[in-house]
Design goal:
Layout: H1 8-30, H2 32-35, H3 40-53, H4 58-67
Helix pairs in contact: 1-4
């Protein structure tokens, strides 16, 4: 268990925020026009998929913030 503060947590939070901002902007800029002509149900499926896919690396990222090791579970 970590007892002292680490630089990884504030840097990780800022990085996560900036990464999600960039991800959202890229989707809004590049995919909004492409998906605009699609059926609303297909748009819903795509946006739900894109809203969930960013969660895939989040577990490893949170472990790194806590332990400093990428992809290994904390003890």
């Amino acid at each position: 268990m970590r007892e002292t503060p680490t630089w990884r947590i504030p840097v990780g939070i800022i990085g996560l925020f900036l990464g999600l901002m960039v991800y959202g902007i890229l989707i809004a800029v590049y995919l909004a026009d492409i998906l605009a002509g699609w059926h609303w149900l297909a748009q819903t499926v795509v946006y739900i998929f894109l809203g969930v896919v960013w969660l895939l690396p989040l577990g490893n990222f949170l472990i790194w913030m806590e332990t400093g090791k990428w992809g290994t579970k904390p003890d």
